[in-house]
Amino acid sequence: MPTEDKEARFLQCIGEPTRLRIMKLLAGGERCVGDIVSALGREQSLVSHHLRALKDCNVVITRQEAQKVYYHLASPELAEIVLKSESLVTRLSLCQNGRCGE
Amino acid sequence: MPTEDKEARFLQCIGEPTRLRIMKLLAGGERCVGDIVSALGREQSLVSHHLRALKDCNVVITRQEAQKVYYHLASPELAEIVLKSESLVTRLSLCQNGRCGE
DNA sequence: CGTTCATATGAACAAATATTCATATGCCTA
DNA sequence: TAGGCATATGAATATTTGTTCATATGAACG
User: Fold this and answer.
1) A69-101, pLDDT tens digit by residue?
2) CATH number corresponding to B3-91
3) How far is the CA of A67 from the C1' of C18 (A)?
4) SS3 B72
5) By the 8 A CB rule, do A86 and B77 touch?
């Protein structure tokens, strides 16, 4: 299993709009599932599935407190790379035209 | 169309093993399609499809010379972010277990 | 215990994706 | 202009992915 496969999995894992929003939220500190759900305004089940995807890739870490489960980024560098790619997308005008995916 | 959507498209675009390999190749300077095909050892048609995906996202730029078409990265920062994510994946042990995608 | 709250899971489905195969385009040279 | 390279395109297919719905787990507290 070459290195590129894991790297691709990682990039694909964070390369999804809902998961990106979750990561940007967590960049501001840990949040419990309920907080994330109301911040995103999406279904609890959907958020839970995405959190699992992030956790399976070791992008986030969980901590349980009573009934609540708190999520935080595995490293501040993950927030950095998200910000860096955001800046790249705007500065280089990446993925603006309709041909790109859509 | 929120910013996260474009960012997600970008990350998803580069988050594919074959496209990652192409980008790492192009990090060493421009290459024509034939060079990329033989470097990767994959079908010409497949490489062409992936090159198109990269081009549609403005990640690569083309230059035609006679029958050959040369591709290069739109910015050296694209090579940087690929390297940075590679280093993150190894240092943080991201996407190692089988649950992650597979 | 039974109930309520917080989160996770699993099946089902639609949409997106990577790959292959076959064919088309475009540029050069004899 | 005919033929050969180099690259691109399009249809077809199998796999993966995101989302929803319904239900399950598990912790607290009466």
Assistant:
1) 999 999 999 999 999 999 999 999 999 988 887
2) 1.10.10.10
3) 41
4) strand
5) no
